[in-house]
Amino acid sequence: PSGRVGLSCTEFAATHKIYCFGGAGNSGYSNQILEYDPAIDYLSVLPIPLPTPMEGANCRFSPALNKIFCVGGNNSGPLNTIIEFDPVAETISTTTGVFSPPRQYDSCAMNSTGTQIFCFGGFAPSSDTFLNQITKFEINTLITYQWIRLS
Questions:
Q1: H-run or E-run covering 124
Q2: What is the pTM of this model?
Q3: How far apart are CA 108 and CA 8, in angstroms?
Q4: Residues 6+ apart with CB under 8 A from 42
Q5: Residue 21 in 3-state DSSP?
Q6: What is the tens place of the pLDDT at every residue in 58-103?
Q7: N or C: which end of the chain has fewer CB within 10 A?
């Protein structure tokens, strides 16, 4: 719908649709969730917004839960949230204060079972630090976390 940078996109395996979250453009940070259907080359804006406008998050699909999880991001400051999006029900929820320091621009991958997200690096503007951490989020019914420090 508008030019933007810093959005994060991932495929929902059940429908092969691609979902993109947030981003930043001329009008600031976006709270939109975009749905792209490559089978018919159609892009739409979902009627539900993100809990907060953001860019620089990292979103991954969990085949175990059939949901998409977005980690961190930026909204005039780094976020320490994880957003859980259910593409089937089109519902969204968020957790806050789940990791420290808040970060943006990390790079994440989901493991093959869809139960763990590994995030590498990132930037913590509050301390002007480029992070040398691997963060592991274990996904079951609740999201927990632990730090693994690089030596």
A1: strand 123-124
A2: 0.86
A3: 11
A4: 36
A5: strand
A6: 999 998 889 999 988 888 888 888 899 999 999 999 876 577 778 8
A7: C
